[in-house]
Please model this.
Amino acid sequence: MKNTKIIILLLMLINLANCKAQQTYPLDTDYEDVPALSYIKDLNNELNQFTGIYKANYQGNEITLYITKVEHMLKKD
Model:
């Protein structure tokens, strides 16, 4: 019984040692350099200046762009 508890405790410690935190990268990082399941974060509030509604006319058509800042979006390969 005692050996079982020790083995379980050792397995839990080994498993804990293998855990890694999610890596955070700034916006100006090239997407090819970012590993899968990483988090790209607006660390310097660079996106705030671009959010809003933009309107334009092109060949008689009105184009409206709604640009928002999306947080906590997962990048999958």
Notes: The first strand starts at residue 24 and ends at 26. The chain has a mean pLDDT of 85.
